[in-house]
Every structure is written in C-alpha cells, then in structure tokens.
Design brief:
Elements: H1 3-6, E1 13-16, E2 26-28, E3 38-41, H2 54-59, E4 64-67, E5 80-83, H3 87-98, E6 107-112, H4 117-130, E7 135-138, E8 142-145, E9 148-151, H5 159-171, E10 176-180, H6 183-187, E11 198-201, H7 217-225, E12 233-237, H8 243-246, E13 253-258, E14 271-281, E15 284-293, E16 297-302, H9 307-322, H10 327-336, E17 344-346, E18 353-357, H11 362-373, E19 380-384, H12 393-405, E20 408-411, H13 421-433, E21 439-441, H14 445-454, E22 461-465, E23 472-475, E24 478-481, H15 484-492
Parallel strand pairs: 2-3, 3-4, 4-5, 6-10, 6-11, 7-10, 11-12, 12-13, 13-14, 18-22, 19-20, 19-22, 20-21
Antiparallel strand pairs: 1-5, 7-8, 8-9, 14-15, 15-16, 17-18, 23-24
Length: about 500
C-alpha cells in the first residue's frame, strides 16, 4: 500500500524522503518486529521509547518512520521520516487505513465505566445473539471472534490489534462487536480512527489513580468522557451522580437507565427496574425485577445477586433494544448468561456457599458485600488481597470496607508484583483496624482459601475477591500459574482438568 494512502487522514510534516514514491509492506510499532519495507511508528511507552530505535529499524530496512520528535538516524539514508503531533493517535488512524476501515461495516458498541463493563458486554452479546445478530466481543477476559477465544492482555487492545481484530470479525460476517473501553485506552488513543455506533456508561467512582495510570479522579473521569465524543448513540446510567460531566460534550441522542424514577440530570429515566426480589435457592443467589419505560417486561430473572446485577442487566437491555431485541431474547439471555469470575458460584460444600468475584477496589467490594448481606448468610467471609505497585490508598479503603461489612476477613496476597506481600497486607490491616472487624492474615493465597473452606460453617457465604477470571499471580515481574478454581479442586482432592 502506498504511504500516502495510509497518511490520508493524518496531519503530518515530511522530514526526509518522498512519501509519494514509498510502498509499505507492513505497519510495525515494536522495534523487535521491524522488517524490510515496513512503516515503523515510534511510540513512547512507560519503559521504552520507540524513537530510540530509529537507526536500528532503518538498518533492518524500514521504508518509513512516523515520529513525534527528533530521532537519531544514519547521516545519509533514503528512509522517509514523517513528523506528527501524536504517534499513538497516528498509529490508530494508520491501522484503520491499513486494514481498510473494518469498523465501517460493523456496529461497534463500546462500554466504559468503573465496574460492570465485562458483565454488561457478555449480557449484551447474549441478548443480541438471541435476537439473531452475529456478535464479536473484546474485553478484559478474552476476545471472541466466531469460534475463536483469545485470552486478553489488556481490557482494550492496542489500536493496531483492535483494527486487526475488527478486520477478522468483519471477514467472518460478524455484524456487531461489543467491547470494553478502558480509560487508559481512551487516554492513549487506542480507539481513535473510527466512530462507535453506541457508547455505554455503567458508572464511575475513583479508581486507576496512581503511577502510570491517572493523576487524579478528574483526569480519570475526563478520559472516560472521551468515548461520548466519538459515538452516534449512547446508553448511560441515569442514577450516577457524575453523569452530567460524562455527557458534557456528547453530540448525539442518548437513553438513560436506572433504578430510580428520575435521573441525575433532571428528567425521568428512559428505562427503569422496579419491584426487585431476591432469589435464594440451593446453589443459586439471584434477583428478579420488572422493567418499565421504553421497554416493558415483567419478572425478569438474573442468576447473580445484587443491585449491580440489576444495573448490568438493565444496561444490556437498553443497548439491545436499540438493535431490535425483543422480550424473548432479553428474558432468556438474562436468566442464563454467566461470566467467569463475576459472582461465579463454585460448589465446595452442601453446608455453605463460595463465590469468586473480580472486585478489586473499594467501590466494587462494598457493592458486592452489601448485596450479599441482603441474603442473610450465617457469616459473610471475605478473602482478598491487593495488587502491588498500585495506589496504596486502595488497600486502606478495601480493608475498611471488608472490616465494616464482612463478619470475618481473611487477608491474603493478590498480585504483589515488585512489593513484599507482607507490606501490602500490613496496609490492608491498617484499614480493617479502623472498623474493629474480625480478621486473620494468611499470606499464601492457596493456604488462605484452604482455611476458608475447612472452617466454613452451615449457612456461611465465602467470597474470594480480587482475582476473578485471572489465572496467574504476578510476582517480581513473572506471572505464575494460579487459578482459584484449580486451587479449590486441589484443596478438595478433586481431579484438576
């Protein structure tokens, strides 16, 4: 492909060479993969800067470089050097052009928010498939393209990988893509270069604030709001107190959903859940409710507990009805859909229940524990740790939440990364001590889970929080295999499949 075709939608300055005469054989942004006739995009990352490898990729035969600052190159070379304002943004537009703008033939639904993104995407996918759509999914757990399930490295992949995935899906005849959109992805322009057919907002509270993330809540909120500048339609949580700032610059029609009659921007919610009832049967905690507004449905059942489950279900319904889903498609999907690591029940005993959930911040953990207490367990036991090299405030906050709502907290290790697990546990303990809540410390996560199972009593509800779908534990830069389902099977002497 001609370089000028790739650059068509980009503002740029030619520093060296002639773009008109340059053919590109591949688009590369990792210097280790540079090859003859490639277009190399110099990306500045947290740990390395692609600009530093300019001479190296030229030596490998790169046809052109995209830069945002000066680079050191050989004194005489024919390689085209293009200067742009932002190479990450340029990479997104270049990738869209390289894969011939696949999003143009897809209905792309982007879901953002602090919590609920993963569950909402799976519920939306299930409803739309029941309604006859062929749906792809991109998110925290995996990418699903037809029969292919690819484990995810990031909630939202790099722009090149995203466009490559869109192309694969479009070529398979997929008509709709439901994807999670992280604040980091929006901040780093991974989703630039196309327009979302529908943008979705679940909720927002302080999260991902710290080194290599967001400097403060305002920055986090602003990045989330960027999604609503590049969409044709939106579905938003009308009950969220920050909604007005999220949609401050929205340029399209939107629908609000919520549990309250009136939303926080001064009008009635377009879709509302009411008459909520708890479902408590052996092996299942769920909730039923009615939907009213632009779509009405009685006695909808969701097989996971809590108000957050109702919000996720209502949000997915609001999105799906925009694409023509009817009553049967909604009812069947909401009742049967399950998401790995999201209120995932694991059978360990006839006496008590155990649930695995990804809750890894104070907001998510508080919502989870409050919801579970409504089911009146004999004891609510919460096992969790916190990730290392992340904001320390999360540890104090989560400790305080668990100390307040759980009858017993088991503090253990999560992903310590480059910190000492005991130091992280000390911080969590500080938070719990503010509440006077009961707790024990067991640093090894497998030992902690074993203790919880062996000491479970009749009517208890044990929640393993923080890991969810993850099947590893990150220690000193290495991801060691660790799946809580496997640990449970080993503890119980079951065959590990």
């Amino acid at each position: 492909m001609k370089l000028t075709e790739l650059l068509r939608d980009i503002e740029y300055e030619v520093i060296n060479g002639d773009p008109e005469k340059t053919e590109i054989g591949s688009v590369i942004y990792d210097s280790r993969k540079a090859e003859k006739d490639c277009l190399f995009v110099c990306i500045t990352g947290a740990n390395s800067d692609g600009h530093s490898f300019a001479a190296e990729v030229i030596e490998k035969g790169a046809a052109a470089l995209i830069t945002e600052k000066e680079v050191l190159t050989a004194s005489s070379h024919d390689t085209v050097v293009i200067r742009v304002k932002n190479t990450r943004y340029a990479l997104a537009l270049l990738s869209a052009a390289w894969f011939k703008h696949p999003a143009d033939s897809l209905k792309v639904i982007g879901v953002t928010g602090t919590k609920g993104k993963t569950t909402t995407t799976y519920l939306t996918k299930a409803i739309l498939e029941n309604a006859g759509h062929k749906v792809g999914l991109i998110g925290t757990i995996e990418t699903v393209a037809g029969d292919r399930h690819i484990p995810s490295k990031n909630t939202t992949p790099e722009s090149y990988v995203l466009q490559e995935t869109f192309r694969e899906m479009a070529d398979q005849g997929i008509d709709t893509v439901v994807m999670e959109v992280s604040s980091q992805a929006l901040m780093m322009d991974r989703t630039a270069g196309f327009t979302f057919d529908t943008a979705v907002f679940t909720n927002i509270e302080p999260d991902h604030i710290g080194p290599n993330e967001h400097k403060d809540f305002d920055d986090y909120l602003y990045c989330k709001s960027l999604l609503f500048k590049q969409c044709r339609y939106a579905v938003v949580n009308g009950d969220d107190s920050h909604l007005s700032r999220i949609i401050e610059n929205i340029g399209c029609d939107f629908m609000t959903f919520g549990l309250k009659k009136d939303n926080t921007i001064g009008s009635a919610n377009d879709l509302r859940a009411l008459n909520e009832k708890l479902i408590k049967v052996p092996g299942e905690l769920g909730v039923s409710f009615d939907i009213e507004g632009e779509f009405s449905l009685k006695n909808v059942e969701v097989g996971t507990p809590g108000d957050f489950s109702v919000y996720n279900a209502l949000c997915a319904t609001a999105v799906a009805i925009h694409y023509g889903a009817g009553e049967d498609a909604v009812r069947a999907a909401l009742k049967s859909a399950r998401v790995r690591g999201r209120i995932e029940a694991v059978n360990v005993s006839d006496k008590f229940s155990l649930i695995i959930d990804y809750a890894h911040n104070a907001m998510a953990l508080e919502s989870l524990l409050i919801s579970l207490k409504k089911y009146e367990p004999a004891r609510l036991i919460c096992l969790f740790g916190c990730g290392g090299n992340r904001a320390r405030s999360r540890r104090f906050e989560m400790g305080e939440v668990s100390g307040k709502y759980a009858d017993l907290t088991i503090i253990t290790s999560d992903n310590p990364r480059f910190e000492e697990p005991s130091a992280i546990i000390d911080d969590i303990e500080t938070g719990i001590k503010k509440t006077g809540g009961r707790y024990i410390r067991i640093e090894d996560r497998k030992e902690a889970i074993a203790w919880a199972i062996r000491n479970g009593e009749s009517g208890d509800l044990v929640i393993l929080a923080g890991k969810g779908h993850e099947d590893y534990q990150e220690i000193k830069g290495v991801k060691h295999p660790m799946d809580e389902r496997v640990l449970i099977n080993e503890i119980l002497g079951r065959k590990v499949v």
